[in-house]
Amino acid sequence: MGWLGAGTLAPVLRLFDTAKGGVVPFEPRERGKVSMYVCGPTVYGPPHLGHGRFSLVFDVLRRYLAWSGNEVTYVSNITDIDDRIIERAQREDRDWRDITVRCEGVWYRAMDKLNVQRPDYDPHATAYVEGMVELIGRLVDHGVAYETSDGVYFQSERVDDYGLLARQPLESLKAGARVEGTEEKRSPIDFALWKKAKPGEPTWPSPWGPGRPGWHTECVVMSLGLLGEGFDIHGGGQDLAFPHHENERAQAVADGRRFARYWLHNGFVEVEGTKMSKSLGNVTNLLDLVEQYDPRAYRLLVLRSHYRSPIDVTDDNLRDAERSLERLDTFARRVAELGVAAEPDAEALDRFRAAMDDDLDTPQATALMFDLVRRANQLLAAGDTEAAASLAAAVLEITGALGLELHAEGGEVPEAIRELARQRDEARAAKDWARADALRDQIVAAGYVVEDTAGGTEVRPA
Ligand SMILES: [Zn+2]
Description:
By secondary structure, the protein is of the alpha/beta class.
């Protein structure tokens, strides 16, 4: 892997665009400004590990774009009206709003624990129904939507390149379509824009009678409404590419609007080697994960895989991530104690950029980060504090750009104990093992844990 030194062209971020089926240079609508829309949760139950992954993947992209000097506008919606919300409300005999408000609270609690930055805007579908009714009206006027006894449907085949995001020809989409909705549908791939209300359901008024919008109409109206035509990135989990994102896109195309410039999708989550499913119970609950493990472990796990690859969430690899975080924390404490300020090593940052610009190669970026820690510890052991401080500053830049918070405080070790640790390092350097052991015993007796690292004696409260 080469890095770009001074004088060469600035690296350009390249991303895999689902619509183009390949990695392409990312050129935002407006230089220095990036607009992103990431499909958020439908708030009817607890968030699962798949929600955690897409939130982390797009949080990393957002942070990296901002770190690279862009002004990022990040929108992620809350779908607060949906069949599943209504079903649960009816099953539990509760007000549907009680469910959505509580589930949204749980959602943000999990996101905060994961250190996922809050969106700049989190539009709620129920606040945009008027705009959705207007769009559906225009689609009916354009002759691409039709009314049935149970709603209004979009005629997918009227959009020339329908199926673009599925990367499949129309015929195979039709053959594979689930039979859903009314028999009055003209094609199995037509989808509901408006659902006429059944008794007892929440409703909004429309020219086709009381009802509620379909999910695909929600996102197209909210994304265009907040970010404008030709916004930069539309993202979500791989399962959303088709039909959800394709159906959003089809409506925009049929309405003559320029939609997202780039489509990004992240890979699936497997749990203990099995594709995630509800049957696995609690282990798939994101809140359980962030309570049972260091919440940063999931971010590190996500970073260690390429965002388009599947990840396997297991107890083993979460524990392994926790141990790696402990190494990073120890390093951060050591650096903080040194108290030496330095400019981040430029070559290290160039290599970080090169990895991230290559379709967000976070596995390579994290490998680089751990390599820098190892090299900095070696330099510290060799007494080259200045060079070590420069690599350490690069590590902190990188962890910051990736949203990985390090715990540099972690237990107050008094100066007297740190002095004993320094004396022990001197004794070891002089191969005076008896004295080194005696000093170790002294530190342990004072209630501290002693660890030997490449950078020397590490001490923390027991
Ligand atoms: Zn959406």
